[in-house]
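A protein record in our archive is deliberately plain, so that people and models can read it alike. The record that follows is passed on verbatim for readers who wish to inspect the format.
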Amino acid sequence: MASLSPLSGVRVLELGAGVALAFAGRLLADLGAEVLRPGSPEEPLRRDGPMARLPDGGDTSLLFAYLNHGKRHCALDPERPEDAVRIADLARAADLVLWAPEEGGAGFALLLPDRDDPARRPTVVLTAQGLTGPRAGAPGNAFTAQHGGGFAYHQSCPVTDPEATPPIGCADREAPMLLGLIGANAALAALLDRAGPAAPYLDVSAEDVFAWMLVDALAELHDGVLPPGRRRVKGREITIAGGLVWLLRCSDGLILVSPREDHQWARWIALVGEPDWAKDPLLCGGRAARAANARRLGQLMTEWSGHQKAREVFKRAQAARVPCFPISTAADLITNRQLAARSFFRPLALADGVAAPMPGLPFAMHDSAGDILPRGTPVTAPAAEPGVGAFAPRTMPAPTLQGGHPGLPLAGVRVVDFSWVVAGPMATKMLGALGAEIIKIESTRRPEFAHRSGWFAVVNNNKRSCTVDITTPEGQGLIRDLVATSDVVVENFSSRVLRKNNLAYEDLAAVRPDLVYVSASGLGREGPERDLLAYGSLLQAYSGRVGLIGRANAALEGMGIMPAWTDPATSLWESMAIMAALRHRAATGRGAHIDLSMLEATVTLLPEAVLLAGLGRPVPRNGSVEDLGAAPSGLFRCAGEDDWLALAAPRDAAWVGLCRALERADWLDEAALQTAAGRLAAQERLRHGIAAWCAIRDGKAAEATLHAHGVPAARSRGIYELVRDPHLTERGLFRQLPDGQWSIALPWLGLGGDRGALAPRPGLGADNDYVFGDLLRLSPARQVALAEAGAIR
């Protein structure tokens, strides 16, 4: 068996700096692309994050190594004429240009072809506010964009006291890395889009990205149940896709448990010991009663859990098929047996014989010839190459997908979609936005498919629906016939479901050998914990994410439980892997099986915590209240009602602008504050000064003043303001469909303002005639017979 490189032969030029751009490029390199990166030995990222000594005696930033291993690094300076010529030549020789003009990439602007130049290569541009709209070019970064895009606001919503629990950002480096992950998706879409007269030019805005993540808020907005502010109102409990989640304190730690279905609740109550209170139907006799009494039930369950050990409750609950996980620390991840069994971490050798564990890709992949995408292989610290840098000679023409249209590169691709809840449906919705035909496999026998408002409506655009009972031999035959005419299968059942129904990868690859088959599950299809029952919200605890955000509390306020993070993040890994596999199929004729772990999908975005824990160092900062790449930074209270402003000064120019905006000439003159290290040491003192300035100003006015001086800043805003925001409206981010539903197609913008297809949710079984008649060519009489036999229902 050989190593699998789905993007073999792809040439990528990465221009700029910063975490987001570097992560996007590294993901393409992990998938086999040749990524060439002109860089400077003095770029700030080389000194950011935890530092360590290499075996050769040199020091390196482990964060820089994590984000840049697997690339080719060359010392080309756009300010030098001879290097500028070389960079311009590389931009025309590349298959794709990744560019961050606001993060160290401004100097490349004059070296790149104009947007309408026929010689321009597919280009993906990462910025804070986007390339169009009233705020285009306004100073910002991923830290401020998570507030301006609404995610931080809704991550601390609802709360009992908005003053005591301000909006709270992402953990670790999640904010810029999410932008990078979407940048990698955009890059693959651009590589596949070869049908138009002009190469794709995709505009990825960090603010758009965080608004795209607001599945929960859009669902509640759609259902008319979203209060206008962050303050908790009666009956507004913490639910994920309609399921209640409880935090319970044990004698030695914390667990999250979510027995949301009636059968799960019955098994959970048996585990708790059948207490008398559980016999009261008004208290917990059904989902509605449990939702109404969630807080009281949490108190009663804690009376029991306080005498139990967290890991024991976790094991017993999972044995009873009740979703339950402990809240992990970063150190727990290093010793996690499931991650170890799946070779998730990649070691970077350091001095004194130790190694730093670096998270790898969150999926395993093998193609139909048996070639395997490497996992767990050692990482080499990035080093600049001698010479001027050039791409390797081409060995084959770029493959193309059949049937693609400009802006819809997946037109002609058919996807059979078994997925449900959030992650899988969001991934297939994106594939549909890119032109794929999505056929959703549903059943009238499963009551969850009858609920088609809220969450379902937001994540199931761009799909057809047919109803099949896959437990019957006739239903399984229908699926096999459909897969024989399809290209991709997506499923996120427990590991047992499709195998026992003869619909596992091996079964379906027999009828379609070049099939791309994606299995997304809580902890992956292999490993000792593969059968654990998981929801994305609980994996946010097991991954260590929850432990890095806010403080634990029974009401789950400001803890990173809401809005959903793991599910939409997982969807992006799915879509990225599918597009890479489709390109590999176009090049080789081979299909692929992808085994994706939602746990790994979450941990991958927490590199700094993992790196520190792996070296036995404390994890002192978490990124949720400050920008780890900037000092000073933070969230500050302004004078208006629940009025909060995020700002960051990541570079010297922003620091000077901040001093001038605040009229603090004394800070400008202070020698200790002339360097980033000095400002980091004085972070708390600087924050006090900024807080005093913000406290007497309206948030909008403060934001405008800071922008005028070049300081990244954004007010923390909610969905009600976002859907009416003039900038986002001009960029076409939110669209209201004929049924009144608000939704988003793609989190990036194409030339001419294109955001892909966006069709309303399908009715249950609304496309049975199309699927069984037009595609499978079954006669009406045969369809009736299959319905009477229970196969179509």
Notes: The chain has a mean pLDDT of 94. DSSP finds 34 helices and 28 strands in the chain.
